[in-house]
Write a structure and sequence with these properties.
mainly alpha, transmembrane, Ser/Gly_Cys_C_dom
């Protein structure tokens, strides 16, 4: 039985570390592709003005949390502009059916002709819309976003390494507990030290070299993202405080200071 536990521990350690190394190498070697023949650059949405980092609000959201984060940002942006009402029960209601850019118009289309829909359904319709796909394409073309072939990426691999480290520890404990009374289990337990060192060492290296982990932004994209702590002074529309929107784009719904908006997104499965 101890050999079975040891085999499981070694397999989990080697596989998870190999996946993390492959994800890190794939992300590091992404370079902006050249323009395709006959292709035209996709312009940034007019209403999503460029920030000091050179990224629009939508681009910051996508690089930080993917299309679902972008969907949350446009919903909150429209709520702060009084175009939508986001209830803390998880419903989105249209107040002003006029979108100022393609993503806002996509949000109104996702809500539908009835003018009201559950936020999870709106979010799922938005993430597959062409307007959001154009934001992703623009970032991938610039070498700032990870292509779909590279994801789930580094953060998922880091979670696997952490889980493998825990599995090694549990396997060692199970081996010690299953040992016969009076048996010398020291040599067998020593073999668990190697996969444990491997997983903890790989995890520490990833924490030092690759943190913050991202499933969406390349290394170049991470460098473009501003510091959320210093984003409060960035310019924005009069009806939408820059601090809350940029912090939402960078950190997600948990960073919202408005309890109603935070409850609306969290109650809807954000």
């Amino acid at each position: 039985m101890s050999l079975l536990f040891l085999l499981v521990a070694w397999s989990a350690a080697v596989l998870s570390c190999a996946l993390l190394c492959r994800a890190a190498v794939a992300a590091a070697h992404i370079t902006p592709p050249g323009p395709r023949a006959g292709a035209q650059a996709v312009p940034a949405p007019a209403a999503a003005e460029r920030r000091g980092s050179g990224l629009t609000l939508y681009e910051m959201a996508y690089l930080s949390g993917g299309p679902h984060r972008l969907a949350d940002v446009v919903l909150v942006l429209m709520a702060q502009k009084r175009r939508l009402l986001l209830a803390d029960t998880g419903w989105a209601t249209v107040v002003d059916p006029v979108g100022t850019d393609a993503v806002e118009r996509a949000a109104l289309t996702a809500i539908g002709p009835d003018g009201q829909r559950r936020i999870p359904a709106v979010r799922e319709a938005l993430v597959s819309d062409d307007a959001v796909r154009q934001v992703a394409d623009r970032l991938e073309t610039a070498g700032l976003a990870l292509p779909a072939a590279v994801r789930p990426g580094i953060s998922g691999a880091v979670r696997l390494v952490r889980g493998a480290a825990l599995l090694v520890l549990l396997s060692a404990v199970a081996t010690y507990w299953r040992a016969a009374p009076g048996a010398d289990s020291g040599p067998v337990l020593a073999w668990f030290a190697v996969p444990l060192i491997l997983t903890l060492g790989t995890w520490a290296a990833a924490r030092f070299e690759l943190h913050p982990y991202s499933d969406w932004a390349t290394t170049a994209g991470e460098r473009q993202l501003p510091d959320a702590a210093g984003s409060r002074s960035a310019p924005d529309s009069p009806a939408a405080p820059a601090g809350s929107l940029i912090t939402l784009a960078l950190r997600g719904p948990a960073a919202l200071t408005d309890p109603t908006l935070r409850a609306a997104l969290h109650s809807s499965g954000a």
